[in-house]
Predict the 3D structure of the following.
Amino acid sequence: MNLFSNSLKAVVVLAATVAIMLSLRAEAVHPSLVTSKADVVEMRKELTKDGRFKQAFIAQKKQVDAQIAQPIEVPVPKDGGGGYTHERHKKNYQLMYNAGMIYQLTQDEKYADYVRDMLFEYAELYPTLDVHPKRKMKSQNPGKFFWQSLNEAVWLVYTIQAYDLIHDSLDAAEIKNIEQNLLKPVALFLSEGQPSTFNKVHNHGTWATAGVGMAGYVMNEPEWVEKALYDLDKSGKGGFLKQLDQLFSPQGYYNEGPYYQRYALMPFVTFAKAIESNDPKRKIYQHRNGVLLKAIDTTIQLSYNGLFFPINDAIKSKGIDTIELVHGVTVAYGLTNDPGFLDIAQQQDQIILTGDGLKVAQALDKNLAKPYKFKSVAFGDGDDGKQGALVVMRTQVGGDQALLFKPAAQGLGHGHFDKLTWQFYDHGNEIVSDYGAARFLNVEAKYGGRYLPENNTYAKHTIAHNTVVVDETTHFDGNVEKGNNNAPTLNFFETNQFGSVSSGEISTAYDDVRLERTMALINLPELESTLALDLFDVVATDKHQLDLPLHYQGQLIDTNFELKANASHLMALGKKNGYQHLWLKGQATPEKGLAKVSWLNENGRFYTQTSLVNGDESFMFTQIGANDPNFNLRNENGFVRRVKGTKQHQFVSVLEPHGEYNPSKEYTLEATSRVTGLELTNNGDLALVKISIAGNTYLVAINKVANKKNKLESELQRKFTYQNKTFSLNGRLAVYVLTNP
Amino acid sequence: MNLFSNSLKAVVVLAATVAIMLSLRAEAVHPSLVTSKADVVEMRKELTKDGRFKQAFIAQKKQVDAQIAQPIEVPVPKDGGGGYTHERHKKNYQLMYNAGMIYQLTQDEKYADYVRDMLFEYAELYPTLDVHPKRKMKSQNPGKFFWQSLNEAVWLVYTIQAYDLIHDSLDAAEIKNIEQNLLKPVALFLSEGQPSTFNKVHNHGTWATAGVGMAGYVMNEPEWVEKALYDLDKSGKGGFLKQLDQLFSPQGYYNEGPYYQRYALMPFVTFAKAIESNDPKRKIYQHRNGVLLKAIDTTIQLSYNGLFFPINDAIKSKGIDTIELVHGVTVAYGLTNDPGFLDIAQQQDQIILTGDGLKVAQALDKNLAKPYKFKSVAFGDGDDGKQGALVVMRTQVGGDQALLFKPAAQGLGHGHFDKLTWQFYDHGNEIVSDYGAARFLNVEAKYGGRYLPENNTYAKHTIAHNTVVVDETTHFDGNVEKGNNNAPTLNFFETNQFGSVSSGEISTAYDDVRLERTMALINLPELESTLALDLFDVVATDKHQLDLPLHYQGQLIDTNFELKANASHLMALGKKNGYQHLWLKGQATPEKGLAKVSWLNENGRFYTQTSLVNGDESFMFTQIGANDPNFNLRNENGFVRRVKGTKQHQFVSVLEPHGEYNPSKEYTLEATSRVTGLELTNNGDLALVKISIAGNTYLVAINKVANKKNKLESELQRKFTYQNKTFSLNGRLAVYVLTNP
């Protein structure tokens, strides 16, 4: 560790030296951040032709024209988030940036003058300001225009670019006024003035370093760039590069999940582009094996049918068309010319007015897009990629399915207590779902648009997810710190012609309980179908009650066991830890054998979960919405499999998409499950699952041998005997056809 | 009445005479039903070119090729609906028709031979059959291949066309075998053999007359055509023309509503086309001022965003792409060349292989489609168009809105007890909704795919709709016959530049209660918005409890009054008449003034119902799903406004679409209602409603003067005074801007 840290320091010092030399040579060329002077020449040329870029320009110009027809408003800061002065200052920075770009493209001085005049007003206001009156109590990081310095940093990121865009239209006195009274003081306030935020290896820190670093380039303050990159003391302990090293895993996965990943991306993408323009020798895009590009790509990979997988605090309608990812994909295409990114850009349907935006527009005009390839991947979590993983399995056999398996780390304050949970997607829709965040973003009537109280009382709790709850208590007892310190282990992940398989485990979610889950998404090409296999092992020292919920999207169609409904009145399932929010709608204890629950999703497909039970699992059917006096929760359905007073239990099930309900064309196909047999044999390290479905019988073999060094390869090539036949297995997963009709 | 009936008889006799003469001259040209020999020549020619028609042909041929590669199966009838022999015979007639058409287009004998061989098998089987073993007890109309003669008639409609298509490939012995042993006996069984069905003025009768009439054309039995058109006794009391006279209103509205209308259309469209081909002088399409074409067009008009308005027993996903309407639109375009029908055909995206199908395909290939015009219309109900009406109001101001108002007749056995109910649609979605039918079509696990028990215990009841329920009792006490005999009155309907307005009333839904409702869809162009105004007057002899439910689609966002939620346990709202299926989730009694309920639809828009209350209306918030042991019902939300012990009450409210929730782009606009004032003044016949919204104040004037002859025109042009100002009103509806900001 010491050795590594010393050599890192050496690299940092060397890099810093090179950088200063580069910066000293830098000439005052404007613009030169995300969009360069050369880019602008090409962009102007493009405006003589019809095409996507010109269309985007016309739309943007129209919007800017309407806005600059209004008087400039730079109000004295007064309101917190959502209030007038807050929203106005947000609109201002966006407008200055947009107007600056229209100035570059049209060379019409009125746009530059507008930005200049607004900057003048800011330059007049800023020296008069103390920290924001609505700053949060005890907060270490208030802004002046805004209640928190995060917003102030975002303001700087946009405003410094706007300034760069109009710089060459200004005379020396104007430059002096704007830089001395506004931009330099803001940059200093956000760096030297708030070291704890600026140096913090956190997304808030990234906005600050991006703003200050870009200010350094524009106003020829190379020291600021150094500090932005390597911490105020230039040690490399903080700063942009450290953020890039620690906030993403080596595979480019961001600890909080895709919803926050796309948000976190923005300052990284922006500042990196500026670094590349000004200091190409820093090779920022090659840093850490190209982690930034991986982060952009991973954000796309973590989506299904255009929407991000909604793990942790996520608003479910966020997807790949989010503006942050438009910027990310634009830069990624500019870097790689990979036509897969054009596929995404086409879906985003939004051209941005930058040099890379021009490239994307031209390429789309030439129909160069090729289908983006979604893959099955285990995205390692944590800065070392070893704090568990977020696993995505996909298949095209029988549609377009995705299974998300989450032996991932807690994900800080926005993380949910859902170790080893899963989600399933088919034919465009959520089938086995995650609640996401309990929040109506910006809807004042719903708790001011903030996270609802039910986010803490329900959505974050384990029962709100599809994983085991012990004794009605949430993982880590709901303690974030404990969660952050105890990631699950990814035992293995493999994808091959038979499908994908993964296993994860955790022994720290509860004091004396070990949870191990193995999931597989299996291709059955003969049936043009897929199956999701779930083996959940729970082993404890003492006896416990174990609950395994499954939250499904759709209408219950049938159970193959008698279900006693609570028809005439409803009570909550429990008292706390999220249980108080579930109505208990019915219950049953199926006999030993196969217990089936079928539902119909609004995509018109049927889904059946077939569980192998011993007669000791009770099934409780639930609906979200109890103890919800303000009608804040979505009333979704689920069922909870429960075993009481046990030290050990194995939950075994398969999820099977089947059939089609088409009332419009008046046909219904295969509305009943085709699974007729399910048997599990644990043969040492091997889990052997025999599945009979639609007259075919399959043997699924999963090799769970531990991941020991050296030995593993031989352990993964083995032979085994099942029902007097010998099978050979090469890898983690194989599917054998035992009989077909 | 007698006079009319005599002159009708005269026309009938004359027509019959002309028809027989025409028929005697008819030569044996095949095919000559929906598709003529001349059509086939054009269709074959088209197959030499690329285009929609050729594509449709290739797809159809591929399907037929796959099916005729299988052995012919003509099983001995055994199963009821959904069972093997039932489904097989259904597939057979469709396959024979399709294969016959492919024979005509390819002239490849193998297709004709296949149809011939299948007909031989039927000809061998039919003489051995008694009525179907699974015929329904007490049924007057069993089939032989099928359990009911309805299916048998459909079989004949398809099979006679298939036979016509391959006729010229057969030798005399083959013709004799098929006609003598199969087609003629079937036609006789369905006509002479079942006079009560054949003569019945009912959709089932239409299939029978269509099948038998077409058989008459193909097998040169002109008498059959006469009987099909004019009743077995040729009196005109029954038969196809009587069906056309009675089953549709003069505007082409079918009493059971659009869901059954599109189904009923099929035999009308098919037989009419055959009549036009064989007996053009009958001018079938001009019959009753072109009612058949009106019926096709009305079916389209009764849709929103591609789906039929789901009144009565309707499966909600049925829409304009239904195969029956594909045929209807194809024929309608063939008749009219109206490019609006091409717009619909484009949305249907299905070309049928007929002469008219060819015309549609060619026109679409030439991009001749023009937007179909959806209109605001009151579709008169009943054969005279005077048994109430189904009213559709539409506006494009502020989106694409539709309001459906239903002062319509009961609609026979599939009708719901929902006099004067309404529905509202905006931005593509249902906002104020109707449950439709409680049914999962063809899903065996859900009550065999039939109408669920909850269709009778919930969906048909008044409480499941958006209209007044007196004393928790359903309209007409749930008696269909009483409902059929007592239609509401349409007082008026008008559409003009201010919007649309309509009023209806009924005094027979309850013994001593008169229900009168006036609804308006109002354009507010200044706000680029619309409002739905609802004035519901209830007057009774005795004191009653009045409930006015509103079933909304979405998540409750806010109320402007305190709502006491039943947070920890739920009970049903009542014991019977559908009330037992509603959970009571919360309640409130808002103070005198404006009571607001806001919800968010999944289309991302907010909706607020603002009610003018006196402090005597309690609001009960409900969710469907109580006493539903098999989870058959959809758990949708609503609220019921209740007044107790009153002889008279006026429910006054406006529904206001507003704002936008866009968590993807992270903005929320106008999440709160903009209505700040609502006042109603009843000034004689005038209802004057002052509405303050978003700083504007409007006066809406509705002239409710009775529809007396002669006088009406002058009554509709009048002046009135409101708050010391004089206004002039010309018509039923005006909107005046009192103040704007």
Notes: Residues 2-25 of chain B form the longest helix (24 residues). The first strand of chain B starts at residue 303 and ends at 304. Confidence is low (pLDDT under 50) at residues 1-5, 13-26 of chain B.
